[in-house]
Amino acid sequence: QVQLVESGGGLVQPGGSLRLSCAASVNIFSANAMGWYRQAPGKERELVATITSDGTTNYVDSVKGRYTISRDKAKNTVYLQMNSLKPEDTAVYYCNADIFPKAYWGQGTQVTVSS
Q1: What's the pLDDT score for residue 80?
Q2: CA 69, CA 90: separation in Å to the nearest integer?
Q3: Are 21 and 77 spatial neighbours (Cβ–Cβ below 8 Å)?
Q4: Which pLDDT does position 30 carry in this prediction?
Q5: CA 76, 47, 70 angle in degrees (round to 5)?
Q6: Which of 29, 44, 114, 115 lies at a C-alpha separation of 20 to 30 Å from 13?
Q7: Region for 35 from its dihedrals, namely left if φ exceeds 0, alpha if ψ lies in -120 to 50, beta otherwise
């Protein structure tokens, strides 16, 4: 059973930074891709960033230049560094693992950007 545990969310002022972590119970390098999604109140869940097995990264346009996805093989952990945060970044952030033939989700961590 694949387990993903997110941490690092919280309340931050506009312009601030947070780093989210996703600790996996499996070898993350065996996944086709690892990703971060977010869901704001009243909105659909959206893809934020992904990193594939070969290290290729991809970002939604709204976070390009501000967010960075990375991974640590020794810790089996994926990170999302979020800088220059804006109020519209407020959402529950979910970690995702695409491990054929299924996709797995963490429980989510709340990020609130407010003054």
Answers
A1: 98
A2: 18
A3: yes
A4: 86
A5: 30
A6: 44
A7: beta
